[in-house]
């Protein structure tokens, strides 16, 4: 695995954990999607620098 693949796997685990924590029954998943998009955007910025 390359360093980038390791970082992506780590990020995926963190996102999964955040979604599990923040998804309460009956609440919309809009916040989860926003958080995930922000994390992906941050990862993209880190990879490009």
What report would you give on this structure?
The mean pLDDT is about 75. The longest helix is centred in the first third of the chain and has 20 residues, at about 5-20. Helix 1 (about 5-20) packs antiparallel against helix 2. This protein has two helices and no strands. About 0% of the residues are buried. The protein has helices at about 5-20, 30-49. With about 50 residues, it is mainly alpha-helical. It has one domain. It is about 80% helix and about 0% strand. The protein starts with a helix and ends with a helix. The protein is elongated and about 40 Å long.
Search tags:
single chain, 49 residues, mainly alpha, 2 helices, elongated
User: How many distinct folded domains?
Assistant: 1
- How far apart are the termini? 20 Å
Radius of gyration based on Cα positions? 12 Å
- Strand pairing plus helix content: what structural class? mainly alpha
Helix run count: 2
Quaternary state of this entry equals single chain
Mean pLDDT: 77
Percent helix, as a range, is: over 70%
Number of strands: 0
Morphology call: elongated
The parts where pLDDT drops under 50 for at least 5 residues are none
**Percent strand:** under 5%
- The SSE order reads HH
Largest sheet: none
In short:
This protein has two helices and no strands.
Give me the secondary-structure topology.
Elements: H1 3-22, H2 30-48
């Amino acid at each position: 695995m390359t360093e980038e693949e390791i970082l992506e796997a780590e990020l995926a685990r963190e996102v999964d954990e955040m979604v599990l924590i923040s998804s309460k029954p009956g609440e919309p998943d809009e916040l989860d999607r926003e958080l995930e998009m922000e994390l992906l955007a941050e990862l993209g910025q880190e990879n490009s620098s």
